[in-house]
UniProtKB/TrEMBL annotation:
Gene3D superfamilies reported for this sequence: Arylamine N-acetyltransferase, Cysteine proteinases
The protein, known as: Arylamine N-acetyltransferase
Keyword Chloroplast: no
UniProt key word Transferase: yes
SUPFAM superfamilies cross-referenced by the UniProt entry: Cysteine proteinases
InterPro entries, per the entry: Arylamine_N-AcTrfase, Papain-like_cys_pep_sf
Family, as annotated: Belongs to the arylamine N-acetyltransferase family.
Gene Ontology MF annotations: acetyltransferase activity
Pfam families xrefs: Acetyltransf_2 (PF00797)
Keywords associated with the record: Transferase
Length: 276
């Protein structure tokens, strides 16, 4: 394990399990994978705040990510969360690969940059899509990686394959399916994450470095904050969108998304919301 690129030997597994609220034994099996997935998305929000707080970098080495998400009680964006969960799965003994997907929700763009990263976990001759960081519209537990696979429940999803060969994860809403992202299974490595991370933090076309994007996935309700627009999603109901005033927007990270911020960070965000 000491030679694994996913750094399972460097993760504080007990601290992570406490952070997400998982109790009992864990093992490299489907039951554990489901428990970890559901617990992680309920406890840890998608959080792009570092990009708005004047940070010149968002480090994605395991030690930095653990300190931020596990010890400081923050969330993280996709790449940070994948680094953390990959180390956790590696430590437990799972076998998996990483891939990158092109986000389609809200844009419908099949050809944008592949910025979203998730994992394919191998178990008993099958593979499972394990994606804890897509946010408010994403999976609450793994879905079997197979053509026309479905995950049914209050929140339902399926996987379809397009003629191009891309797989597409879709959220199945009462008014029809919503494409979340398309991907191939080309293997990505931690060194690839560094390039994607730099794009997300610095590129003019990055969707994550200009305004707050916070997301949290819980069984009964999901929240998405983009700028000052807060969307509440409930199973089988139309989305409810509300514009927050400055006070509400500054309190939302902690009150809605469970993100712990330092007082100085809140003041910096206040200036960001006020604009130039």
């Amino acid at each position: 394990m000491s030679g694994s690129m996913w750094r399972g030997d460097g993760v504080d597994l007990d601290a992570y399990l406490r952070r997400v609220g998982v109790r009992g034994d864990v093992a490299p099996d489907l039951s554990t994978l489901r428990r970890l997935h559901t617990a992680h998305v309920g406890a840890i929000a998608f959080d792009n705040l570092d990009a708005l707080l004047g940070r010149t970098e968002v480090p994605i080495d395991l030690d930095s990510v653990q300190d931020k998400i596990v010890r400081q009680g923050r969330g993280g964006w996709c790449l940070e969360q994948v680094v953390l969960t990959a180390a956790v799965l590696d430590r437990i003994g799972f076998t998996f690969t990483a891939f990158a997907g092109r986000t389609r929700i809200r844009t419908g763009d099949k050809f944008g940059p592949a910025l979203h990263v998730a994992l394919l976990v191998e178990l008993d001759g099958e593979r499972w899509l394990h994606d804890v960081s897509f946010g408010a519209h994403g999976l609450h537990e793994p879905i079997r990686f197979a053509e026309n696979a479905r995950l049914d429940g209050d929140w339902s999803f399926d996987l379809v394959r397009e003629p191009s060969g891309e797989h597409v994860l879709r959220l199945l809403r009462p008014d029809g399916p919503v494409e979340l992202y398309g991907f191939t299974t080309d293997v990505r490595y931690p060194s690839d994450f560094e390039l994607l991370n730099h794009f997300c933090l610095t590129h003019p076309r990055s969707p994550f470095n200009k305004r707050m994007v916070l997301q949290r996935t819980r069984p009964e309700v999901r929240h998405l904050l983009v700028g000052t627009a807060l969307t509440e999603l409930r199973p089988g109901e139309p989305p409810v969108v509300r514009e927050l005033d400055e006070t509400e927007a500054l309190s939302a990270p902690e009150e809605v998304f469970g993100i712990t911020l330092e007082p100085g960070d809140v003041q910096t965000l206040r200036k960001t919301l006020a604009g130039p």
